[in-house]
Structure formats: C-alpha cells, structure tokens
C-alpha cells in the first residue's frame, strides 16, 4: 500500500487526474481483464452510433475509453498512419506504405483513405487487414494510439482532423510531411502553420530554401531532410521497365489557379470550378495550345500521342474543354500516374512541380507561362521561391501562345532527350537518384522517434 508522510504526518493521496482518466483502466484492472473482453469493432459501431444522442463531451469520452482499452492499444499502439489525400491515394504515402509492408513488417503501419475513394477497391484487395476508412470508429481508435502520421499532403483536414482535434486525447502523434512534389515556391505562410516534425525534400536547393539561415520557414535541418520523395523510388523502377519506343506521350499538364476554383470542403471529393471558367484567359490559352495544328502534325510525324492531364483540382475542366479527337484526356482518378510519367516523351506545363517528375527521368520539358505576372506575384498559392524558370528550369519558357507552339514543335522534332544545357541542370538538381528514398525516410522517422538524449549520444 502506498503512503505519503509529510513532517511525520500521514496525508491523504488525492487523484488529481481528469475524471475521464480516473474512469479509465487502472493497472490492476488491466492485468485482471481478459484481452478479448472488448467486442469486435463491428459490434461496437451501433453503440457509437447510438451515442450520437449524447453530448459531444460524452461521445469523446466514450471514444477515449475505447481507445485506451487493451485490445485497441494492442492493435494500434505506436502505429505509423500513412495517407495521401482523403479521397485519393497513389502518391508518396501509398508508396511508403507499400515499402513498409514489404520490408519492415515490424513497424505497425496502416493506410487511411475514404471508403468512397476510387482507390479503395484496389487497396482493399492488396491490404485487406491494413486499410482503415477515414472517419470510421477504427480510424478514431487508430489515431488516438498513433505515434506518427505520414502524409504527402499537409491540408488542415489531414494534419488536424476535426474529429480527433476535439477529443480530450487530441493529437499525440508526430507529423511527417512527405510532399507530393518538389517544392520550388515559398509556401512558408501556409506551412509554418503546421506542426511538422519531419519535412521531406528532394534536392539540396529545396533543402536550403526550407532550413537554411534567413529563410521565411520556421523549420531547421532537424526537421527538413533531403531523402527524396518516396514515390520517386517506384517512378524510377517503372521508367526502367518502359522501353524507349513505348515513350509515346506528349503530356500537356497545367497546374491549378486559386481564382479558377471554389474553396474546398472535407465533404467534397474535389474542388469545384468557378461558373465562368470557359470565359477565362486560362481556358482560352490552353484550348489554343491543345488544338494547335502544328503540334498535332509534329506529334504525328514522331508517332506520338497528345494527352491533356490537368492538376487534380482542375480535373472538372475535362468536361468543359472541347478536346480534339487526337488528344487523350487523362485523369488522376483510377489511373496509374507513374506509368503515365514513365511513358512521357515530352511534358508541357506552366508552373507545375510535375516537371520535376519527368526531369528525374531525363525527359524534356516546355514551360507555357502566359499569366506569369499574376501567378508569380502572389496571386496563387505561395510566393516566388528559390527556383527561377529561366536559370533553373528544365526546358524553354514561352510567354505567349505562338512561342509555346513553336517550342513544343521543336522539342517533338528533337526527340525525347533534353538539350545538353537542361540535362546538366537536371544532374545538378537531383543528387540521389538511387531508388532508396523510402529507406531514408524510414531512417529519419526512426531517428526522430528516439528520445532526445539517445539522439544526442548517437
């Protein structure tokens, strides 16, 4: 029996923990209770749904008690939770999850995705026991016990889900920002609001733009690590499997603009376009490039196919653009995006980080920047960063439609190899194209998981 005496006098011991903790599992009750006492989650779901009539505080308390129970702790303790977008997979989160299941079964890794996602059937078939539906009871128990959340996106609904943030057992995990592209713009205003414990980058200039002295970011070399994107490993493997004669796509891939879309919500699977999108300069310029006869003729001579693949936030524009018969529409939903990049013979984009994907594979790029002033003056996400398209880009920069058509035709006629100047830039940019990005990310997470004293001694 524990006793406390002060100045020789026996004093009472008061339990100062919150009441919800006092009603949790004591050490003695844990040892006495059988591990199988808690019914399966499918049996508990009606109970949780019935709790919908309770107050929010009571529902949070119920979830907290379930999350702290021995079965939930045994199943989800110290979990690594991986995800990409809420409604989409097939990015760095999924690639790292596949790596963990293949090479590190000792790590308690889970993948989270909305059940309505088109990627759900594919992942459910491959990982039936490791896929968790976002918003479900299992997801809440998982997040309450997670050690790490690792995601290619840092949207607020990903990093700080409202259902968990409102709980008394709110976020105990660390967050690893895996990124879904090489960051070239200054996104510090947005990302400084996130509590990022591991910030993955892919190039040395990108690393210095985030962690170097005098930058606008709050992160240092402790959080920012040049590991490479996890999905770069799979992309390099896929590209090696595609023979040169199968690289048959000229991909036109513009990024989105904040003024072309409505604000997103968690309930929506994708952003909605503004009503007058067909009347915008963006729409007219890209329609002109897609329909240019000179580009169609050049592609025909080279035996290439034209494809239009707008940013995920602009995917609804595929319903509005009148694509010529020889142009193939490409969607991110349900597509093998890595195979698309591996088959790319030429990329035509504006400001998209997709250019880094194809440059990683030594493929040529053309930039079409008719609205450069509006985008780079802060009208879109972020501000201009360390990357200058004329000095650091992987291909020529066109400022108007006529110049863009001419640059695309010249690139097609030259063949699927960058000019020497741009090939040299590519080699300077990517210092580690060894296909081991996933290994480096895992090593960084494990290093940051050790106590501070152990890290200092190491």
Q: Main beta sheet, described?
A: 7 strands, parallel
Low-confidence stretches: 19-37
Order of strands in the sheet with most strands: 5-4-3-6-7-8-9
Cα distance spanning the termini: 41 Å
Measured as a percent range, the helix fraction is 40-55%
Q: What is the SS-derived class?
A: alpha/beta
Rg (C-alpha, Å): 25 Å
Discrete helix count: 23
Please explain how this structure is put together:
The chain is of the alpha/beta class. 41% of the residues lie in helices and 13% in strands. It contains 23 helices and 15 strands. α4 crosses α8, α5 crosses α8 and α15 runs parallel beside α20. The chain starts with a strand and ends with a helix.
Outline of the structure:
The chain is of the alpha/beta class.
Question: What's the arrangement of secondary structure elements?
Answer:
Layout: E1 4-6, E2 9-11, H1 19-22, H2 27-32, H3 41-50, H4 56-67, H5 70-76, E3 79-83, H6 92-103, E4 109-113, H7 120-126, E5 131-133, H8 137-145, E6 146-151, H9 156-159, H10 162-165, E7 174-177, H11 188-191, E8 198-201, H12 204-211, E9 224-226, H13 230-241, E10 249-252, H14 281-290, H15 293-302, E11 305-308, E12 327-329, H16 337-342, E13 344-349, H17 354-360, E14 365-368, H18 372-379, H19 389-392, E15 397-398, H20 401-414, H21 420-429, H22 437-449, H23 452-457
Parallel strand pairs: 3-4, 3-6, 4-5, 6-7, 7-8, 8-9, 10-11, 10-13, 11-12, 13-14, 14-15
Antiparallel strand pairs: 1-2
Helix pairs in contact: 4-8, 5-8, 6-13, 6-22, 15-20
